């Protein structure tokens, strides 16, 4: 053994010598040994996180290009570039340089569109990725903290989106900032001060774009990068989750080795995302600021929309009535030092819906953990149907979000479908409260029905569509038994039962424990148990054994 | 008995019984047998896949060349059409360049690289031995610092650390001036002429015909060297003329208009968008941002939407030459509400 250690390794090629040189100084062999063949499970729904990561890389690349030409100054200037209709128009340097990027720098417009489209894709893919994680229960132990990191990433992506949207200082983004300023003003006690500090005085001032620029290109992206690093580090520590199926359990991970298959697929996927964004940026105009013109507090265009991810907050602002049943929602409160104004008609929609969504999002893993008293590690995902209540809660939240989102287009809905704008708002107000309840009920029933269908298939096979007439005249449809692998996928899940309140050491069921028991019943009282071998055996004694047998023979013959 | 459409066998079998043990569950049959692909068994299929991958990489090369063509051979002139053409060539060039590489690699991986799924054991995230060792280390460190035995050090450190961040907050004080009275005043003053936005030409009362609407700024705004947009953001006004009988001025506001001509702030009292849409027939003003609707015949009271307060009215009259002028500034702050508004 000692002789082996003392014989130094001699690389044969030049590449080998360089690699060995580096390896002796950084210890790369150990890393490669650990990660070179690391196993990753494969499923199309695992791609959303990858899409988010790759669109962020594209954002960094295209954004860096744009910073070389963009000037975030709000100083006045006169446009003198190539776009004829705006020649001689007064505008800020920021708007001027954005127009120059679009019209006078080759590829500048393309880069702007790549940047904007990938920003939309970035937020969208994070959102869809989180939906995937939620509906499959991937947030359960040990991944609760990574779920929280993901939530922070979602918020950061919204922040980076909005700060970037405001930079060109065009009419649309200026009105967006005006709305933000109005919302900030509604904050009690400190709102006016925050507004004056943020804008460097009265709206719009000459400071805001430079400040948003620093946030947009430095602070927020740095935080996103940090969060991505933590996120991926935890993915490596936990290893990836996997969908349930034969051969997969909480103790193993089944999939393709990183090298070569998974690395090739994931690496190739980056180029595909880049290509798709490039194709969209080539063919579909986004944010044509030359049509909007520079920001001016007086004009506005009707039917304008915020970027999609801001829509739900804008929709909340639209749905909130200023007066509710004759009661004003803005209160002038007399204090000893004077009268102060509380604008609940702005404050509530700006804070409450987003507050509810993000609070529930962040604490949900702990809610479910408390209800189920489940402290085991879960690496096998739930099929959404196998966690009916969770899936229903998710759909209720999703519906709540979508109603707010639709409300941001209330005027377009009214004009496109020729309905009254007021009616659209009234309907959406009602839907905001009723929609989630309907979505919950319907989703839960669908999930339970799908579970029953799974039982049916596991026990009796799938319907073949072949009708057979038996010797005594009865007609029956032939069912083809599924194989063991397929059946295990249908029956290999847990269906917890509601757990009653457990007394503590003093023999008392505490109020908190009673509440937990109540929630447990809410979660699990409707349940479909997975089929058992005994049931399968019993099912075969139902009289259509012959038909199934003949079907089996046929399968064997094939 | 033959009907199982509901999927529930007779009896209580559908509900799992407590203490369901491993024997009563289906056993995991393990990974399904690997199915070979065409390229695994047929060398010609493998060769075909190889050619397809190479073809896709070739498309990428063509895409890059297309990009260069668009970049160097399309001369940007003053028309949108050439810009659009160049954008399409650059974009599709990049798209083909990237998609060629991406789809090529993925096809290579799927068709030719081994597709055996492998199983790997997961490791314990935290072993009990590690935990014990870590606890011991932390205890030792705390013990060696002596922080528990020396409360004086601990308390002064806590005090210092609690205070130290405050300069970092205070430092942001100079981000902007204090609000002061800035939000309570606009450029309007006694005798300020109402002029058209953006040309700055004054308006005769006779110019304002029934049913018309003017977007108005105060005279002198366009000449401001500094703070033009800030002043404009407060001072913009909508000027409309109705049959005087349709207006119902409240006490004290009877003479704020002139023969049915009235002026109201254009800045929405909700969150500050310009209330730019005027419906002649209904005499409603609509904010395009959040659809707050104000009724001109009721002194711009809110009749729909999220705004709470009516639009502030600018008292107007005419000067000796017959031009419309302001009687005074607005009598209340314009725009969105704020805490100190009162």
UniProtKB/TrEMBL annotation, chain A:
Report the EC code(s) recorded for this entry: 7.1.1.8
Q: What is this protein called?
A: Cytochrome bc1 complex cytochrome b subunit
| Recorded GO MF terms | metal ion binding; oxidoreductase activity; quinol-cytochrome-c reductase activity
Domain of life according to the entry: Bacteria
Compositionally biased region (Basic and acidic residues): 542-558
Keyword terms: Cell membrane, Electron transport, Heme, Iron, Membrane, Metal-binding, Respiratory chain, Translocase, Transmembrane, Transmembrane helix, Transport
Q: Where is the protein situated, by its record's location annotation?
A: Cell membrane
Q: Which organism is it from?
A: Arthrobacter terrae
Give membrane topology per the record: Multi-pass membrane protein
GO CC list: plasma membrane
Chain ranges passing through the membrane: 51-70, 117-135, 147-167, 179-200, 212-237, 266-287, 308-326, 346-367, 387-408, 424-443
From TrEMBL, chain B:
Quote the subcellular location field of this record.
Cell membrane
- Protein's UniProt keywords contain Electron transport: yes
The Gene Ontology terms for molecular function here are: 2 iron, 2 sulfur cluster binding; metal ion binding; monooxygenase activity; oxidoreductase activity, acting on paired donors, with incorporation or reduction of molecular oxygen
Q: Name one GO cellular component term.
A: plasma membrane
Main localization is: membrane
Q: Which UniProt keywords apply?
A: 2Fe-2S, Cell membrane, Disulfide bond, Electron transport, Iron, Iron-sulfur, Membrane, Metal-binding, Oxidoreductase, Respiratory chain, Transmembrane, Transmembrane helix, Transport
The record lists the membrane-crossing segments as: 53-74, 86-109
**Pfam families xref list:** QcrA_N, Rieske
| Alphabetized InterPro entries for the sequence | QcrA_N (IPR045603), Rieske_2Fe-2S (IPR017941), Rieske_2Fe-2S_sf (IPR036922), Rieske_Fe-S_prot (IPR014349)
The reply on keyword Signal is no
Domain Rieske intervals: 221-325
Its placement in the membrane is given as: Multi-pass membrane protein
Q: Spell out the family assignment given in the record's similarity comment.
A: Belongs to the Rieske iron-sulfur protein family.
Record function comment? Iron-sulfur subunit of the cytochrome bc1 complex, an essential component of the respiratory electron transport chain required for ATP synthesis. The bc1 complex catalyzes the oxidation of menaquinol and the reduction of cytochrome c in the respiratory chain. The bc1 complex operates through a Q-cycle mechanism that couples electron transfer to generation of the proton gradient that drives ATP synthesis.
The identity of this protein, by name, is Cytochrome bc1 complex Rieske iron-sulfur subunit
Q: Which organism does this sequence originate in?
A: Arthrobacter terrae
């Amino acid at each position: 053994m000692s002789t082996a250690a003392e014989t130094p390794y001699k690389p044969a090629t030049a590449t080998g010598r360089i690699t060995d040189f580096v390896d002796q100084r950084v210890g790369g062999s150990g890393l490669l040994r650990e990660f070179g063949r690391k196993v990753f499970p494969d499923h199309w729904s695992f791609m959303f996180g990858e899409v988010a990561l790759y669109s962020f890389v594209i954002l960094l690349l295209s954004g860096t290009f744009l910073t070389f030409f963009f000037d975030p100054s709000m100083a006045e200037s006169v446009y003198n570039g190539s776009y004829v209709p705006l020649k001689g128009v007064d505008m800020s340097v920021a708007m001027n340089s954005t127009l120059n990027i679009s019209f006078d720098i080759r590829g500048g417009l393309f880069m702007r569109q790549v940047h904007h489209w990938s920003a939309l894709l970035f937020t969208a893919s994070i959102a869809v990725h989180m939906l995937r994680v939620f509906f499959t229960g991937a947030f359960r132990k040990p991944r609760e903290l990574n779920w929280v990191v993901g939530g922070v990433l979602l918020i950061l992506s919204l922040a980076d989106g909005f700060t970037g949207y405001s930079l060109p200082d065009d009419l649309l983004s200026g009105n967006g900032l005006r709305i933000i300023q109005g919302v900030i003003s509604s904050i009690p006690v400190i709102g006016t001060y925050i507004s004056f500090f943020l804008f460097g005085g009265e709206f719009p001032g000459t400071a805001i774009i430079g400040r948003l620029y620093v946030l947009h290109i430095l602070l927020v992206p740095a935080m996103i990068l940090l969060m991505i690093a933590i996120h991926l580090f935890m993915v490596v520590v936990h290893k990836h989750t996997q969908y349930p199926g034969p051969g997969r359990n909480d103790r193993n991970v089944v999939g393709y080795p990183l090298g070569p298959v998974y690395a090739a697929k994931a690496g190739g996927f980056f180029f595909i995302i880049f290509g798709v964004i490039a194709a969209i940026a080539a063919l579909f105009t986004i944010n044509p600021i030359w049509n909007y013109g520079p920001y001016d507090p007086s004009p506005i265009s009707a039917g304008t929309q915020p970027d999609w991810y801001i829509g739900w907050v804008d929709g909340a602002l639209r749905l909130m009535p200023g007066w509710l049943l004759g009661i004003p929602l803005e209160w002038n409160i007399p204090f000893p030092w004077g009268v102060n104004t509380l604008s609940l008609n702005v404050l509530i929609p700006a804070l409450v819906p987003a507050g509810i969504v993000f609070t529930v999002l962040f604490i949900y893993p702990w809610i479910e953990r408390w209800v189920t008293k489940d402290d085991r590690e879960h690496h096998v995902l739930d099929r959404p149907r196998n966690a009916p209540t969770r899936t229903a809660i998710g759909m209720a939240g999703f519906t709540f979000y979508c109603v707010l989102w639709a409300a941001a287009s209330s005027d377009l809905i009214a004009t496109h479908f020729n309905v009254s704008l007021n009616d659209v708002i009234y309907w959406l107000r009602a839907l905001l409260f009723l929609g989630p309840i309907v979505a919950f009920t319907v989703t839960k029933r669908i999930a339970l029905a799908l579970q029953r269908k799974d039982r049916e298939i596991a026990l009796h096979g799938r319907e073949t569509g072949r009708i057979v007439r038996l010797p005594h005249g009865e007609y029956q449809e032939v069912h083809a038994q599924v194989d063991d692998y397929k059946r295990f996928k249908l029956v290999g899940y847990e269906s917890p039962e509601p757990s009653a309140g457990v007394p503590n050491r003093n023999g008392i069921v505490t109020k908190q424990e009673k509440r937990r028991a109540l929630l447990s019943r809410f979660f699990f009282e409707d349940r479909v148990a997975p089929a058992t071998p005994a049931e399968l055996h019993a099912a075969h004694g139902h009289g259509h054994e012959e038909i199934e047998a003949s079907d089996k023979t046929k399968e064997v013959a094939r | 008995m033959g009907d199982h459409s509901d999927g529930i066998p007779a009896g209580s079998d559908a509900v799992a019984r407590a203490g369901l043990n491993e024997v009563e569950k289906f056993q995991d049959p393990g990974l399904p047998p690997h199915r070979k692909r065409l390229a695994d068994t047929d060398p010609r299929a493998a060769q075909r896949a190889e050619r397809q991958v190479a073809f896709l990489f070739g498309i990428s090369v063509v895409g890059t060349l297309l990009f260069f063509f668009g970049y160097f051979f399309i001369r940007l002139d003053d028309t949108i059409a050439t810009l659009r053409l160049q954008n399409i060539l650059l974009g599709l060039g990049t798209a083909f360049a990237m998609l060629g590489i991406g789809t090529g690699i993925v096809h290579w991986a799927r068709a030719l690289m081994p597709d055996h799924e492998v199983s790997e054991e997961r490791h314990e995230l935290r072993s009990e031995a590690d935990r014990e060792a870590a606890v011991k280390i932390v205890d030792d460190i705390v013990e060696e610092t002596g922080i528990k035995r020396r409360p004086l050090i601990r308390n002064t450190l806590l005090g210092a650390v609690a205070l130290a961040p405050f300069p970092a907050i205070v430092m942001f004080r100079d981000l902007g001036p204090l609000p002061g009275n800035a939000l309570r005043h606009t450029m309007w003053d006694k005798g300020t002429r109402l002029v058209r936005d953006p040309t700055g030409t004054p308006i005769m009362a006779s110019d304002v015909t029934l049913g018309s609407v003017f977007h108005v700024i105060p005279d002198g705004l366009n000449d401001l060297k500094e703070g033009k947009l800030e002043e404009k953001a407060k001072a913009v006004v909508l000027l409309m003329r109705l049959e005087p009988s349709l207006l119902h001025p409240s006490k004290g506001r009877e003479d704020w208009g002139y023969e049915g001509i009235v002026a109201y702030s254009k800045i929405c009292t909700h969150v500050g968008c310009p209330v730019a849409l005027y419906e002649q027939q209904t005499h409603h003003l609509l904010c395009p941002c959040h659809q707050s609707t104000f009724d001109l015949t009721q002194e711009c009271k809110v009749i729909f939407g999220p705004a709470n307060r009516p639009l502030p009215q600018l008292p107007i009259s005419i000067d000796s030459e017959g031009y419309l002028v302001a009687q005074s500034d607005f009598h209340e702050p314009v725009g969105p509400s704020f805490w100190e508004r009162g």
